[in-house]
Amino acid sequence: MKAFDSTQLYFNRAADQIDLTENMRRLLLIPKREVQVQVAIERDNGEIATYIGYRVQHDDARGPMKGGLRFHPDVDMDEVRALAALMTWKTAVVDLPYGGAKGGMAIDPRDFSVRELELLTRKFVDGIHDLVGPDVDIPAPDMGTNADVMAWFMNQYAKYHGFSPACVTGKPVELYGLPGREEATGRGVGILTYKLLGRLGRKPQNTTVALQGFGNVGSHTSKFLHEAGYKLVAIGDAGGAFYKPEGLDVPGMLKYALAHKGNLAGYPDAPMIDGPALLAVDCDVLIPAALGGVITSQNAESIRAKVIIEAANAPIYPDADDILHARGVTILPDILANAGGVTASYFEWVQNRQHYRWDLNRVRQELDHILTRSFETVWEVATERKVSLRTAAYIVGIGRVGRATVLGGIA
Ligand code: NAD
């Protein structure tokens, strides 16, 4: 099943619950605009290389469209389309005044020098600058992109449109960025894990966690959960997975990754296991925080965790979701679980537009407030309607986008 088909399936399950008409379903599902641009650069060896940059703007009924920019070899139009739709439901679930978008390029950033990455980013902006902007579509970091990429983006955009720091979020703190933006997605995953486990009657000290992915999201999630008293028994990234039933040394792993370009490969203080085996280790909570589509009908039966927190976007295929649901596994869906990032991006955008600086305490407090409120809303809908948290989150998101669409007028 393709990525967009999966999000459509989840959408339709929720749409059935609220008796959404066929016309409205089509209106909400078909993206508003999809673009594909040529991105050509001269590489360090003098060769001319050409790539394709994608941007999908899914829906703007509730405000300017918002979504990350991904640099990863698997990026294609279908994936970007699916992720753009997810952003529409995500911004609605946490009630931010935004719609949804996504973009990216099918490249492995590790294959490029810093100069080449800067050129790629600037050329991409050249291709899409008149289709994005602070009131239209605001990109942010995602897999393979970071604050540096956002700074280049802002600088290139300014060459066409003048000073406009709100055209992109996730910028360096020294360059109109927000203190706490970088940690926000992982921190949000931590906050929501804590809320959910509290509802399920689980205490941190009696709860074991396995975490896949140790990049921006995974590393901050691990830090938050470790500090909250949870026992992390397995952590892995693209370079290897490590398993220690008595608990891993999270601060030590963070330090090791920091000293090794963000990678865990070669970490000496815990036994290694196979990457895919991490998903099936004995633990209470599993947190996929790397790629999409890692839990499929092939491995769903082997998962032992009773709770899964979707820190990554779309880590579970619908057929696997059905298997896990039937087995009584509670899943906190991506459109809520990793919404801390876009929520902090919203704070950054507000800060840029007001030219007023927020401090870290305010960012953390407001993040906690918005995520807690959103979690309670979704939990209530799930309890009232006796549906999964995923369907409940989609009901909340689709309901809000649907109402805004009707109120705005369709004719
Ligand atoms: P990142 O590039 O910083 O980190 C990705 C991590 O995944 C790295 O540790 C990498 O080694 C690991 N990884 C890659 N391939 C792997 C594999 N085959 N097996 C195990 N680990 C593997 O990316 P990120 O920003 O942390 O994003 C991770 C996920 O979270 C993505 O799905 C992204 O869409 C989602 N997300 C990110 C944000 C954000 O603010 N960064 C917000 C919302 C959602």
Q: What's the quaternary structure here?
A: single chain
Q: What order do the helices and strands follow?
A: HHEEEHEHEHHEHEEHEEEHEHHHH
Provide the helix percentage. Answer: 40-55%
Distance between the termini: 34 Å
The tally of helices reads: 13
Shape: globular
Q: Kindly state the mean pLDDT as a whole number?
A: 96
Sheet/helix structural class: alpha/beta
Bound compounds, each kind once, are: nicotinamide-adenine-dinucleotide
Give the strand tally. 12
Strand order of the largest sheet: 9-8-7-6-10-11-12
User: Which stretches are low in confidence, meaning pLDDT under 50 for 5 or more residues running?
Assistant: none
Largest sheet: 7 strands, mixed
The portion of residues forming beta strands comes to 15-25%
Global Rg: 20 Å
